[in-house]
Design goal:
660 residues; alpha+beta; five-stranded mixed beta sheet; 40 strands; elongated; binds oxidized coenzyme A
Length: 660
Amino acid sequence: MANQTVPVPDIGGAENVEVIEIAVSPGDIVAVEDTLITLESDKASMDIPSPAAGKVISVLVSIGDNISEGSAILELEESDSKNINGERNNGRATSAKPEVATPEPEVVAVAPAASQFAGDEISVVIPDIGGAEGIDVIEVCVAVGDSVDEGDSILVLESDKASMEVPSPASGTVTSIRVKEGDKVSEGDSVLVLVSVDAVASPASSVSPASSSVSVVESVNPVETISAPASKTLDVTVPDIGGSAVDVIEISVRVGDVVEDGDTLIVLESDKASMEIPSPKAGKVLSISIQEGDKVSQDNPILVLEVSGGAEEASTPSTSVSAPTSPPPQQSAAKAASQASPEKSTASESAAKGSGSDVYAGPAVRKLARQLGVNLSEVKAAGPRGRISKDDVKAFVKTRLQKKPENLAAALSSGVGIPQVPEVDFAKFGEVEVEKMSKLSKMIAANMTRNWLNVPHVTQFDDADVTDLEEFRSSMKKEAEKTGVKLTPLPFLLKACAMALNQEPSFNVSLHADGEHIVRKKHVHIGIAVATPTGLVVPVIRDVDKKGLLQLAEESSILAKKARDGKLLPKDMQGGCFTISSLGAIGGTGFTPIVNCPEVAILGVSKSTIKPFWDGEAFIPRQMLPLSLSYDHRAVNGADAGRFFTYLTTLLADVRRLSL
Ligand code: CAO
């Protein structure tokens, strides 16, 4: 382990480049080539990769700093792993300049806009863009009244292969703009008028399109090798892509396809950039040697092309991803541009797939967005000049994940990965009437769906012998009625459940929303499911364990009436620890109730009937009450449930125990 100061590598001679993003913090563990910071000049943005694996000790730059080659970026405690050059770190601290692959600017610069002078007015025209015609204006960077310096970007153009900033040919004030976003422009088109700062700028000081050097980033060109002089086939191989193997993320052609010179054959992606590999010649694809997902390096075969003009005419350009440089004289700006901005090219491609090509984001951010399936055009940029940062992408994902379903219908019909039920035209099969669901019904349905999807349910069944209970209840019924109370089996069930919850506290819990804790309740509030004309509601009786049977009977009938009259308040339905759902008055021999989250268990009560019971010597008639206990298996295990249920049926079988 040793510390090293990581400096800015060779960035093509650019000076005082602004730090626009810091991708790491002290304490972060980084791998070789992980992005540390992103720099942005007025022409390009570039990710600066880590030259070694290790732990970030301190970050020595801040967003907004202007730095140059050699400036210290951060202190790194190297782990004992290979650095970017494949050398094993020897533990010596070093501040040697890492030989990183030079970052690739994502925006191609073109020559300053040409200018035509009329007095102190400068009519700015589109410079030589390599003969490309009808290029889209994707951004107008200035407004009337703006002051611009010579070299400031005034427009951004985008072809299907690259985007290019058009810099101002002089300093001045913008007096009129003749194009707008979405317009198409060609060389010589007048785009805006400037009033020169120096009143009349000398034509001699203007940039002549013909003489200007067009600053481009030269990109990968396939290395072509001629398979045989007489043959008309061309083996197209991976060009110099600046070092390590990269992923093939797209094969853009198929065997039999006819391609033009410059058509994209494949798309490669490193963790720093994506690059389209263009066809070096027009021709027909005879065979393809690679597939998506392969890793390829320089000289690996890509495909074989039947070249229209004969292979012997094929040139062997060999270029590499490098720092900004002038293109070969014969290479037009647009052509160079078309090869020069792999990131943008891929973005254009992905735009067609809705991935947001017209957004301002660096290669690492685009890659992250692709990995997370984020459409960048939906991401709000918080970065400088509308540039989308990794944090913006992460914030977008976080917001989406936290977003509640927009309407209850969405909650009803789908969960993550749950296929939707197809819509059916029921009227095709006979007369139907479509009725609007009440708000309560929709709410209940949404809650049921949520509970059903979230809770791993287990349901156990048992019969309680309520013969003695029913005998006692019948004997007490009249007396209870005198006090205005109807004594049904429900208060007995409430009392028995409260005692069982105290006996088996694993049932009186809720899972904490953080997924890390269990909430143990020291109170016993029990909900009763009440069927009402508008739907099922669950009012809650408080402190059931502390109340007598008559009081429970009274409270449950008051709450049930309130429910049926639609007079329950939200507080009447909150705070339940457990629920009883009784269909005993209606019928049935058993059902599987759905746990009422965030409670973890619910008791289903069916209709008691007299059944033959074998007492060891003979069958005797006993009144048996069918019960079903559903529970959340994340909170309650089967053994606990068995004990809870046995205790409950014991209490119901011997009513005297309820008073203990
Ligand atoms: N077995 C046999 N008879 C039963 C019984 C059972 N399990 N439970 C109740 N009964 C009897 C009662 O004793 C009463 O008869 P008597 O008048 O002769 O005594 C009769 O059925 C009607 O009882 P009730 O419904 O008035 O009173 P309750 O205390 O049993 O129930 C309440 C109250 C609110 C639970 C009930 O009115 C209700 O709404 N039930 C529906 C619950 C529901 O829809 N659950 C949904 C399940 S899943 O979606």
